[in-house]
Amino acid sequence: MNVPGLMAILWGSGNSPFVKPISKAMLRSLPLRGNFGGQVLPGLGLSTHDSLFDPMIPWYSVEQQQAIFAAKRRAGLNTINLCSWSDYHGSEFGMPISYDWTKGLEGAQLARAYCIGLRNKGFLPAFWLLGDRFGMDLYDPNGGHCEDALMLIGRILPAIKDVVGMISPGYEIRGCCGAAGAPYSAAQYFRMLLLMNEIAPDLYKVGHFASENSAGSSHSPDEAGDPWHSNEIGFWTVTDWLEQSTLLDGCFYQAPTGNKLFGPAGDWRDRWQEMIDRLGAGNHIWPPACTNVDLLWGEAGWYDITRGDNTEQQLQAVSAQALAMGGKWSFSG
Fold first, then answer.
1. Helix, strand, coil % (nearest 5) of the chain?
2. What is the pTM of this model?
3. How confident is residue 48, by pLDDT bands cut at 50, 70 and 90?
4. Which of 196, 238, 276, 286 has its CA 20 to 30 A from that of 13?
């Protein structure tokens, strides 16, 4: 089945400015598959070792983007990951900044237009709101100093909420080896989640945490102002009192790198199985409320592939094993 083509039929084709909003229930019924950081496309001049990072797609020329979309269709990929701004490796090649959706209402409308364009091509945009490195210097254990981030979410989310299928506050912005390594505190993250649920209550939301982390709560000892008080279980069971639902719908799991992921021992499996037991399978280790949370095989392998240490084929093999063990969708191969 050509899934991207099917999605185009369902949600519009050509240059229509109208696409069907995707509710949580509708999204959960779709056979999503992506590879936002591990697809290798030789000859397009994309990055080191020809690996594609989806959020960089808007940087490239129309011809390059057409080739990227064609390659994704051939691979059976139907989801593209975007963010408000990304320069993860563009500056290495002297590429001019061709998009920045963080600037004012105009930037938000440009983001909306790009997402509509993807929908009309048969792809579902998954949008990480803050982009890479946005606000990395704003850490405050008391939950202050994230007003710029909240203002950006308040501008861009209303513009895109009816044209994307999935959102996240950002890449790895919680769970980075304790408080000192996290771009935002637990209290700040809580404020972001509340705002996202206020603006778009029926849009599917995921948390993307640091490698092998599974929650946005702080590590012990507590960060000041952590509403979850270092409680990993509590993070997934606390509700938004306005909607009486969990603040996030899925955990966008980030796998480890290097030999732990690609080595013959398969050391990544233990933590992934633990996540399946606690969230994906909703067993008795964690409360029944966690059965409402999906476990996604999220970011895996791109760090290694972009450095030439491993191949896309190796990533596809590992990702197939991970999805066979459990989890709802794979976004890595």
1. 40, 10, 50
2. 0.89
3. low
4. 196
Is the C-alpha dihedral spanning 30, 124, 279, 292 positive or negative? negative
Q: How far is CA 240 from CA 151, 197, 243, in A?
A: 20, 8, 6
Query: Would you state the torsion angle of the CA atoms of residues 171, 174, 175, 179, taken in this order, to the nearest 10 degrees?
Result: 130
d(CA 315, CA 322): 10
Provide the pairing of β-strand 166-168 with 204-207: parallel
Return the top range by mean pLDDT from 21-25, 132-136, 221-225: 21-25
Find how far residue 53's CA is from the centre of its chain.
12
**In the structure encoding, which two tokens stand for residue 196, read together?**
């996202």
Which SS3 state, helix, strand or coil, does residue 209 take?
Answer: coil
For residues 275 and 251, the answer to whether their CB atoms sit within 8 Å is yes
Residue 204 CA to residue 22 CA, distance in Å, equals 8
The domains located in the chain, with CATH, are 3-325 (3.20.20)
Distance CA 138, CA 177 (A): 17
Using one digit for the tens of pLDDT, what is the confidence trace for 138-172?
545 555 557 888 888 999 999 999 999 999 998 88
- Measured CA to CA, the distance from residue 219 to residue 331 in angstroms comes to 27
| Alpha-carbon dihedral angle through residues 86, 87, 90, 94, given to the nearest 10 degrees | 130
Quote the CA–CA distance of 209 and 253 in Å, as a whole number. 7
